[in-house]
């Protein structure tokens, strides 16, 4: 007997959870849509990834659990750093530069990134190059 759509969807979700758990931080950032969004009443385990809110380029913000707990409404990832670490952000909250995979995640004019410990602002839209590769597309940014 053929599986129902709901059974198939559950099996696919299970496979996505398994695949997501095996990725490095760098690859997890590329595959951020694999991860479930944070919600209340969930028991989170150490090193588990989840999403909450949006990052500066409009993608879901990825977090890694650093302390096992059951989530509460007032323990959101953005306000309880004792439970979560934002992935892809430096200590000041700027996104760490990562190689765009296409136009959908390219940096745009005004985007600020941390590249090798230095903040840069993109001078162009559709910027898929690092500050080293195409210096004319970036300027150092100071706070």
TrEMBL record:
Keywords: Hydrolase. Pfam families: CBM_5_12 (PF02839). Residues 38-84 form the Chitin-binding type-3 domain. It comes from the Bacteria. This is Chitin-binding type-3 domain-containing protein. It comes from Lacrimispora defluvii. The lineage of its organism: Bacteria, Bacillati, Bacillota, Clostridia, Lachnospirales.
């Amino acid at each position: 007997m053929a599986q129902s759509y709901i059974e198939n969807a559950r099996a696919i979700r299970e496979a996505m959870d398994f695949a997501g758990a095996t990725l490095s931080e760098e690859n997890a950032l590329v595959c951020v849509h694999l991860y479930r969004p944070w919600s209340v009443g969930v028991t989170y385990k150490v090193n588990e990834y989840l999403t909450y809110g949006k990052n500066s380029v409009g993608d879901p913000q990825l977090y890694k659990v650093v302390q096992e707990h059951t989530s509460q409404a007032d323990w959101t990832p953005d306000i309880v750093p004792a439970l979560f670490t934002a992935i892809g952000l430096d200590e000041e909250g700027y996104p760490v530069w990562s190689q765009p995979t296409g136009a959908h995640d390219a940096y745009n004019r005004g985007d600020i990134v941390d590249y090798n410990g230095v903040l840069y602002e993109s001078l162009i839209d559709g910027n898929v190059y690092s500050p080293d590769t195409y210096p004319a597309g970036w300027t150092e940014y100071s706070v």
